Amino acid sequence: MTLFNFLTNQGSNLLQLNGDKTLYAGLVIVASKVKVIYGFGYGTAQIGQASPVDGKLLAMLAGEYSATYQPSVFVFDPTI
Q1: What 3-state class would DSSP assign to 43?
Q2: What does the alpha-carbon distance between residue 63 and residue 56 come to, in Å, rounded to a whole number?
Q3: Every domain of the chain and the residues it spans
């Protein structure tokens, strides 16, 4: 509930996600399947640079476990 309240509060500084050491997880629907997301952060760019993730929320997208599994990054707009 803490993460939900933080994300829905218009006055929250989303950059705080990058330094928070608290473990959060969430559920999202991707292609008609429920997926687990975790490891939240906020996309930024270097001074004078552009980045496709600048101003977006980032989270790791969990998948089915295997020895070679690499989690992918779930990028979404913070207004969702």
Answers
A1: coil
A2: 21
A3: 2-76
Contact 56, 41 (CB under 8 A): no
Q: Which are the contacts of 20, defined by CB distance < 8 A and separation ≥ 6?
A: 40
Alpha-carbon span 64 to 17, nearest angstrom:
26
SS3 17: helix
For residue 22, give both structure tokens: 């608290």
47-59 pLDDT, tens digit per residue, is 999 999 999 999 9
List pLDDT tens digits, range 7-27.
899 899 999 999 999 999 999
Query: Which pairing describes strands 33-42 and 57-61: parallel, antiparallel, or unpaired?
Result: antiparallel
Angle at the Cα of 12 (from 22 to 56), degrees rounded to 5? 80
